[in-house]
Amino acid sequence: MDLLTLAAAAAKLVFDPYVLVVMVGAAAFGLFVGAIPGLTATMATALLVPITFFMPPVPAVAAIVTATAMAIFSGDIPGALLRIPGTPASAAYTDEAYQMTLKGQSEQALGAGLVFSAIGGLFGTAVLIAAAPALAEIALKFSSFEYFWLVILGLSAAVFIGSNSVLKAIIALLIGLLVGCVGLDNPGGYPRFTFGNTELMGGISMIPMMVGMFAISEILRFVVNTDPPARVLVQRLGNVFAGMWALTKKYPTQILRGSVLGTAVGIMPGAGADMASWMSYALSKKLSKEPEKFGTGHVEGIVESGAANNSALGGAWIPALVFGIPGDSITAIAIGVLYLKGLNPGPTLFLNSPENVYAIFLVFIVANIIMVPLGWLAIRLSTNILRVPGNILMPIILLFCAVGAFAINNTVFGVTITLAFGLLAYVMEENGFPVAPAILGVVLGTMLEENFVTSMIKANGNPLVFFERPISASLGVLTIIILFWPLATWLVRRLRARPVY
C-alpha cells in the first residue's frame, strides 16, 4: 500500500465514532488520575489495561496513548496549586510553578504547562512518524546477535540512567530478571521456580504484576502516610492562554531544545518523561540568560521542561514499536497491550499491519491536539478535582485493581500476584530501590535469554560471533563502552587525585 492509502486506512480506523469516544473518555480519566497527587501516569495506564481487554486493537492503544499524555500534563495542576506534583514528570518544575502561583501568576504557569506540553508532544510524534518506519527497515536486518546487544544496552541504560544509586538499581534489575525466569517459557522448556504450583508454570503475568507495583504500592503509601492533606490554594483562575504567544516568541530555542532533548531521552530505554523533565530543567537553568530567576517563579524552566516531558512520550514509542523494547515503564505496559491485541511489536509489525502502525501515529497527533481544550477544562475544574478525599478514592482504585487482575485469566491467582508485587514495590521504594529496573528486567529478561541461546546455537558455542557482523559488532562496542564508562571515569579520577612524588 502507498502512503496515501495507508493514511486513509489509518484515518478510517481512528476517526471512527467509537474510537473518538474512547479517546475522550481516556483523556478525562488520564486528566483525573494525573491531577491527583501520588497517582502517576504509569498508574493511569496500568488501571486502563483491564478495560482494553474488551476493545479492538486501535481503540485499546488509543486509550493508553491518550490517558498517558493527559496524565503527564495534568500532573502540573496540583504542582502549581499545591506544590505537590501529580506525576513524577512534573516534579522538576513544581517549585517554580508554585512560586508563580504565590505571585498571582497561576494562569501563566498552568497555561505554559498545557500549551508547551502539547507542542512537545506533537514534536515527539513527528519524530516517531519520521524515524520509526526507517528504523524498522534497518531492524529487518537484525538477527538474534543484534537483538542480544540491544537488550543488554536497554538493561544497562535502565541501571545507569534511571537511579541515583547504581547498586540499588542493579539489585532491582536482578529481582526483575529473577521474576522473568519463573515458569516454562524458556528455551529449554524446563519449569523454573514453580515449586510444584501449576499456576506458576505459565510464569508471572506481566499485567497483574505491573498493576500491583504501581497502583497497590501507592495505596499502601497512602494508608501509612500520617501527614495531613495539603491545603488547596483557592483562587479565581483567569485565561490560561493569555501571553502564550508572547512566550512562544520569547523562548523558541527553549521550546525546540526541550522537545529535542525530551524525544532523545525518551528513545533511551529506561529513561522516560521523568528523566527528560529533570534533565531539561537543569539544562534550561544552565543555559539561561537569567539563571538567578530560577526558583523564584520564572516561567522559562516550565516552558522547556514542559515540552520535554510530553515529547519523551513519542520518543519512548520508537524502540517499543520497532524493537519491542520499552522506552519506559508506560511503554512496557503498552507493549503488553500490543501483544494482547496481536500487534506484536517489532519490524514485522510495519510489514504485516502498516495501517495499524499509522493509526497509532494518528492517535498521537489527535491526543496532543485534544489535550489543549480538555486540559483547559481540567484546569477550570482543578480545584474541585483536588478536593476528592483520598479515603474515598483509594478503596475504589483497590477494587478496580482486584477486578482487573482477576479478569485477565479469571483466577484469584492474578489478584494474589497483584497484591504480592504491590507489597514488594512498596518495600523497595521505601528503601530507595527503584521499581523501573525491576519491570525492565522482567520485560527484557526473556528476550535476553532467548536471543543469547539462539545465537550460541547458531554459532556452535563460539562467543566471538557476536562481533563478526557489522551492526552487531558496532552495537557490542557501544554497549561495552557504556557499561565500562563509569568504571573508566572513576579510575581516571583516582589516578589524577594521587599525589605526585
Distance N to C terminus = 73 Å
Mean pLDDT: 80
Number of alpha- plus pi-helical segments: 22
Kindly give the count of domains.
Answer: 1
Task: Calculate Rg over CA atoms.
Answer: 23 Å
**Low-confidence stretches at least 5 residues in length (pLDDT < 50)?**
none
How large is the share of residues in beta strands? Answer: under 5%
| Biggest sheet details | none
Percent helix range:
over 70%
Shape: globular
Keywords: Membrane, Transmembrane, Transmembrane helix
InterPro entries: DUF112_TM
Protein name: Tripartite tricarboxylate transporter permease
Pfam families: TctA
In short:
This is Tripartite tricarboxylate transporter permease. InterPro entries: DUF112_TM. The chain is an all-alpha fold.
Question: How does this model look, in words?
Answer:
This protein has 501 residues and is mainly α. It has one domain (3-227, 237-495). The chain contains 22 helices and no strands. α2 (17-35) packs antiparallel against α3 (41-52), α7 runs antiparallel to α17 and α9 (166-180) packs across α21 (436-458). It is globular and about 70 Å long. It comes from Ferrovibrio terrae. The chain crosses the membrane at residues 20-40, 47-73, 109-135, 147-180, 200-220, 316-339, 359-379, 391-424, 471-492. It holds the Pfam family TctA.
List keywords for this structure.
mainly alpha, 501 residues
Topology at a glance:
Elements: H1 3-14, H2 17-35, H3 41-52, H4 57-74, H5 76-82, H6 94-102, H7 106-139, H8 144-161, H9 166-180, H10 206-224, H11 244-250, H12 252-267, H13 272-287, H14 300-323, H15 329-340, H16 347-352, H17 354-380, H18 382-385, H19 390-409, H20 412-430, H21 436-458, H22 470-497
Helix pairs in contact: 1-17, 2-3, 2-4, 2-17, 3-4, 3-10, 3-15, 3-19, 4-14, 4-15, 4-17, 5-6, 5-7, 6-7, 7-12, 7-14, 7-17, 8-9, 8-21, 8-22, 9-21, 10-19, 10-20, 12-13, 12-14, 13-14, 19-20
